[in-house]
Amino acid sequence: MTRKTFTALAALSMMVLSACETVKGAGRDMQIAGEAVEGTARDAQY
């Protein structure tokens, strides 16, 4: 494998891995927001 090919593959791998972490973080944020809405709805019932 040439040096340029290796560098390109390494850069692509880093981008893919960082994108996965971004999506994972967004999922956590949505889960926390959903729990907050659920708690507010629960409080409104009583």
From TrEMBL:
Transmembrane segments: none annotated. Keywords: Cell membrane, Lipoprotein, Membrane, Palmitate, Signal. Residues 1-19 form the signal peptide. The keyword Lipid biosynthesis does not apply. Belongs to the EcnA/EcnB lipoprotein family. This is Entericidin A/B family lipoprotein.
